[in-house]
Amino acid sequence: xxxxxxxxxxxxxxxxxxxxxxxxxxxxxxxxxxxxxxxxxxxxxxxxxxxxxxxxxxxxxxxxxxxxxxxxxxxxxxxxxxxxxxxxxxxxxxxxxxxxxxxxxxxxxxxxxxxxxxxxxxxxxxxxxxxxxxxxxxxxxxxxxxxxxxxxxxxxxxxxxxxxxxxxxxxxxxxxxxxxxxxxxxxxxxxxxxxxxxxxxxxxxxxxxxxxxxxxxxxxxxxxxxxxxxxxxxxxxxxxxxxxxxxxxxxxxxxxxxxxxxxxxxxxxxxxxxxxxxxxxxxxxxxxxxxxxxxxxxxxxxxxxxxxxxxxxxxxxxxxxxxxxxxxxxxxxxxxxxxxxxxxxxxxxxxxxxxxxxxxxxxxxxxxxxxxxxxxxxxxxxxxxxxxxxxxxxxxxxxxxxxxxxxxxxxxxxxxxxxxxxxxxxxxxxxxxxxxxxxxxxxxxxxxxxxxxxxxxxxxxxxxxxxxxxxxxxxxxxxxxxxxxxxxxxxxxxxxxxxxxxxxxxxxxxxxxxxxxxxxxxxxxxxxxxxxxxxxxxxxxxxxxxxxxxxxxxxxxxxxxxxxxxxxxxxxxxxxxxxxxxxxxxxxxxxxxxxxxxxxxxxxxxxxxxxxxxxxxxxxxxxxxxxxxxxxxxxxxxxxxxxxx
Length: 645
What we know:
- The chain is α/β, with parallel strands linked by helices.
- It has two domains: 1-486 and 585-645, CATH 3.40.50.200; 487-584, no CATH class.
- The chain has 14 helices and 30 strands.
- Strand 8 (187-192), helix 6 (205-214) and strand 9 form a beta-alpha-beta unit.
- The chain is globular.
């Protein structure tokens, strides 16, 4: 069994990891029109992941293997008979996802794959946290201007009533930052998927992450408040006391979300964790589950990973983790604000994982096909973030300097973390504010709005920053203008806003004015133009993919005048931003070179960095700021733990 990791950096925590799986465009019943399901015959690909196939052929010294089996229909009696053999142990049936997790003889894997009802079999992988100051985050993102005030209570936003599911190492629900105005915990549900029978946070990652998304203003005069300080939290514990979990446990939690989303009004899911991305998102079981959540109307926000540089500080490309490789997810990289509220000095954090996605599949001829999608989608503050500290957690126990020393009260302590793990919940909190401002927004609309209003950071390319840096002020301003009667039945080109006056595409924070990106990322290129917000686009529907590299809806392709209307410019280049709008930058890499292995091959240098192919991870690092100790936690598969200053 392989594991997943959390993407945070402790004090400058950069420990990244990942989970692999299989993705197709399946929708949950009642979620609206579904995207075209890519069949096995169309892809001409195998039913067994390349990693697992190698284990089957080599036996890898194992006679039994834990696997995740995806189905495209109900098992026939013959397959049920195989599943009932004494040698086969079914651990869980995840009906919402059409998945079963089980253990069986390695020699029986190919036999199971031969059944028509089986769509894909992959190994049950390990998951880990991708770890991570808050202080000024509310100001620098624009969230602080939206908090309730006596003079503007009718227009304020704080996430009230919105459920954010946090899949992590648990949440200390008694922590003061999670109380509502009546002193009652806003952690409305806690479920353990680790088998340890507890839902608190002995590791210390989940509490920090949850507070970044939804910590209240009761501590230190709100200095370290989360982005959506009155949102409800659903604590789904998938990382154990050592910060480790499994793909099957993560799938169980996602299955639970689908089954219980209405009960707790779960509109946002945050996953500051990941696995090495080996299998294409078209097959990765966790990516497929994320797609089902998005099709059901849930915004899924995930950390990109912390593998942006090598041991000597050189840039690395192609290290986005799973499920960050999934097109329907909002994949978040980390920015460094240097502790200033004004955004003129913001940069992409050196450790933040860069695209393109290098997950892949092999056809029956053995030819490798890489996904090569542009990721991350945007970046958010992730460096030296101060947030809640779970009592006596493992991270602070091992590294006491993580505690910032502001309180002796165990329910008011704060700690430093850095990494895409903390950037992700900041975007999750932003998503909660958007759906509070406009409950009718689809996940694709939320993603579009966040990208369209992002701030392009000068001198960084799309594979580093996506559309740019999170701008909550601009995003909420635009979300409030979107009509609330839009649906999958709305025709392409229909008026999208409730006003004829377009929002001014600039935001001013702490005296610094910056332009919006005014565009979105699509697959291996981008789209720009005011018609992205003036006219309704089919890519905003439920059940379709915004930039997935697959057919949209009923087979209509992006850019044919049907999926995206007139007046939208489509570009096929990867650009270095000049700090203005998307499309005005300098060509960094032509989109045509992102085809299967044409110009981006394993180990081939691109631009100013090095690309690693085949999902090979190097130096998944936990960085401890100026500390000199080596972190030993949450490292597997020969990943190097690196101490960087």
